[in-house]
Amino acid sequence: MSKKIVAIAMGGYSSEFEISLKSGEVVYQAIDKTKYEVYRVHILENNWYYILPDGRKAAVDKKSFGCSYKGNTITPDVVFNTIHGTPGEDGMLACYLDLIGIPQTSAGFYQAALSFNKRDCLSVLKKMGVKCANSIYINKGDVIDTKEIIKTVGLPFFVKPNRAGSSFGISRVQTAEMLPEALLEAYKEDTEVLIESELVGIEVSVGAFTNKGQIQVLNPTEIVSENDFFDYEAKYQGKSQEITPARISDKDKKAVQQVTKQIYKLLKMNGVTRSDFIIQDGIPYFIEINTTPGLSKESIIPKQLEDAQITLTAFFTMLINDAIVRA
């Protein structure tokens, strides 16, 4: 029986492309090569290419997401999506692969697009009863009423690009005078901005995935940042503690795991997700959900899998099998 061909999509067009390349390399090293024939595919803004076993690059045929190698055509049976940001996390890659009939390991195109748009996702989940922070949405070019913003969300508050990840462009605003600079920082990443009230409590992140049709929820990770919040430095440059399992009560653990599962089910997710919360006064407040969470050594999901005694190799096999079964 021939091996299934797995193409690991990595890179992307956003500020997160280097982090995605690290995640893709982790998948490439850990994936079970006794079961799968595995190729790395770099998806960059002006260049899509396979890295072949001999180290050469081969252009992706966008009609099939395949390439030519030694006179043969390589066409993947499944794509392992590790792209953070566009086009992997916002649904564009999923939509394209769906059109050409290739299954992929992360959320469907609608779910990915919805969750990548923070304010749309918050609007949907709030109506479904999920607790979220108070927020205001503005677009580049809008007239800014600072007094009205502070009246609605209070001080301090966060200014976030609506469609970005890895905490790029996020600022914590403590005074009215800090708002213009925070907006300029956010507009570097997106023309749409989300302004949210600050929640005071314990920050946790919770992984979830589907295995054989059942939603599995991992133990929460507690985030303790040395900076004002869990920014890029805290996430990737050691300026935080990430404690797994989180130092929270059983009651809080069950509550945040229950909401994680509820959100996964409400949004009809597939693959692995990571949902972020602030637990304030015993209530988990939803911050965001990530449908292609980091898988590098610094990332949270691998630490939660280690806590659950699930190897990366076994986990990646689960995700690939789940994608193939869904197709």
Any chance you could write out the topology, listing elements then pairs?
Blueprint: E1 4-11, H1 17-30, E2 36-44, E3 47-51, E4 57-59, E5 67-69, E6 72-74, E7 78-81, H2 92-100, H3 109-116, H4 118-127, E8 135-139, H5 146-153, E9 157-161, E10 171-173, H6 179-187, E11 192-197, E12 202-211, E13 214-217, E14 221-225, H7 232-236, E15 240-243, H8 250-266, E16 273-280, E17 283-290, H9 300-307, H10 312-326
Could you explain the architecture of this structure?
The chain is of the alpha+beta class and 327 residues long. It folds into 3 domains: 4-106, 3-Layer(aba) Sandwich (Rossmann fold), CATH 3.40.50.20; 113-131 and 200-326, 2-Layer Sandwich (D-amino Acid Aminotransferase, Chain A, domain 1), CATH 3.30.470; 135-197, 2-Layer Sandwich (Dna Ligase, domain 1). 31% of the residues lie in helices and 28% in strands. The protein has 10 helices and 17 strands. It has helices spanning 17-30, 92-100, 109-116, 118-127, 146-153, 179-187, 232-236, 250-266, 300-307, 312-326; strands at 4-11, 36-44, 47-51, 57-59, 67-69, 72-74, 78-81, 135-139, 157-161, 171-173, 192-197, 202-211, 214-217, 221-225, 240-243, 273-280, 283-290. The strands form 4 sheets. Strands 12, 13, 14, 15, 16 and 17 form a 6-stranded antiparallel sheet that branches. It has a 5-stranded mixed sheet with strand order 4-3-2-1-7, covered by helices on one side. A 4-stranded antiparallel sheet has the order 8-11-9-10. The model is unreliable at 230-237 (pLDDT under 50).
